[in-house]
Structure formats: structure tokens, C-alpha cells
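A reminder from the course coordinator: this example appears on the midterm review sheet, so study it carefully.

Given structure:
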């Protein structure tokens, strides 16, 4: 079994681009959408407790069309808001988000 090394979430305040780049490395099937399992893997990489639960809640909060994943500008903006509120991630330069 091969192990992949992921970049850590940068410390301090993040830009939208940094958050997207960090999250994109967990898009295992490269379909441009983040599933609950992929978000769970991302949260585990930064040692979030109850990663499965928070991933489920994050996708529920962000998934506007209820297709089971996060894709598109609107849903990504919702995931940013979830990360700020529940994961205590500080994202700057949100623009219209």
C-alpha cells in the first residue's frame, strides 16, 4: 500500500486559493468535487476529532443540490463558511463569499 504525503493546512489566516489548493489534493478521483469521504480524509490529515462527523456535517451544510458532494462556486463558498464556523479556520480575501 502506497502512502501519499499531503501538504498541511497552512497556519494562520488563509486565502481562498490556499484553502482550495489544500482541499484539492484530497480529490482522490479528480472529478472536481469533494465527497464526504474525501473531506473526512482531509480533516483527518489535520487531526480533527470526529472527522467523519464533521465531514458529514460539512457536506450537508455545503451541498446545495444534494448530490452528495461539494462542487461549484456556491457550494465551495458554503464549505468555506462551515470551515470558519466549525473548524476555526480563518480565511481572508473572501470577496463576495
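Designed residues:
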Amino acid at each position: 500500500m502506497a502512502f501519499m504525503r499531503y501538504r498541511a493546512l497552512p497556519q494562520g489566516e488563509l486565502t481562498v486559493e490556499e484553502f482550495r489548493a489544500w482541499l484539492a489534493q484530497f480529490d482522490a478521483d479528480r472529478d472536481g468535487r469533494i465527497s464526504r469521504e474525501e473531506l473526512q480524509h482531509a480533516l483527518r490529515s489535520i487531526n480533527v476529532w470526529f472527522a467523519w462527523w464533521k465531514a458529514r456535517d460539512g457536506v450537508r451544510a455545503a451541498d446545495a443540490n444534494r448530490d452528495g458532494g461539494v462542487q461549484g462556486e456556491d457550494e465551495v463558498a458554503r464549505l468555506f463558511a462551515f470551515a470558519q464556523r466549525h473548524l476555526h479556520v480563518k480565511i481572508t480575501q473572501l470577496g463576495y463569499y
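The first strand starts at residue 14 and ends at 15. Helices lie at 16-24, 36-45, 51-62, 72-86.
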